[in-house]
Amino acid sequence: MVDLYFDDIIKVDRVDADGKKFDKVSRIEAQSEEDDMQVLLDVNTEIYPVHAGQKFRMALAPTLNLDGTTVTSYFPEGGHKSLADKFEYVMHGLLYKISEDTSGPNAKVMVYVSYGGLQMMLKGDPSKMGKFKVDQRLFLLLRKV
């Protein structure tokens, strides 16, 4: 069984709040419903359009293999059942930074992942961030709800 590091419904609050910087990419700002996490995520909107107000199931996992084993090669579509079969948009990246924000009344941890130049920042309660480690490979999975 795959151990998901994050699995929640997110609602997109804003798209390209600072203006559109790239033709095919938008930065979304979203909030998770259950875990009260803030998400900043770059999405290739040419292949996966995203709009404010939409809801998505978002998951972060260390592997796509349903048995939890490490992904060691690429499987052609339909050739092997994987966690990706349950989602519409999948990216693979590297967690490159973890930092802490102690400016408010409650401390928050921020996790930063680069998906081939598309960035993600996940900010939330430190108790929910214990599985994340720097230099960890992670899959991001999205599906419209």
What is the rounded distance between the termini?
23 Å
Major sheet summary line: 8 strands, antiparallel, barrel
CATH superfamily: Nucleic acid-binding proteins
Give me the CATH fold name.
OB fold (Dihydrolipoamide Acetyltransferase, E2P)
Strand order of the largest sheet: 1-2-3-7-6-5-8-4
Per DSSP, what share of the residues sits in E-state strands of 2 or more residues? over 45%
Average pLDDT, rounded to a whole number, is 92
The CATH architecture designation is: Beta Barrel
Order of helices and strands: EEEEEEEE
Unreliable stretches covering 5 or more consecutive residues: none
* Number of continuous helical runs: 0
Backbone shape? globular
Classification by helices and strands: mainly beta
Instruction: State Rg.
Output: 15 Å
Would you report the number of β strands?
Answer: 8
Helix content: under 10%
What brief labels describe this structure?
single chain; 145 residues; mainly beta; OB fold (Dihydrolipoamide Acetyltransferase, E2P); 8-stranded antiparallel β-barrel; 0% helix; 47% strand; RPABC3
Task: State the gist of this model.
The chain has 145 residues and is mostly beta strands. It contains no helices and eight strands. It has strands at residues 6-15, 25-32, 38-44, 55-61, 89-101, 108-115, 118-124, 137-144.
Explain the overall architecture.
Keywords: DNA-directed RNA polymerase, Nucleus, Transcription. This is Putative DNA-directed RNA polymerases II, IV and V subunit 8B-like. It is a single chain. The chain is an all-beta fold and 145 residues long. The protein has one domain: Nucleic acid-binding proteins (OB fold (Dihydrolipoamide Acetyltransferase, E2P)), CATH 2.40.50.140. Helix content is 0%, strand content 47%. The protein has no helices and eight strands. β6 (108-115) and β7 form a beta hairpin. It is globular, with a radius of gyration of 15 Å.
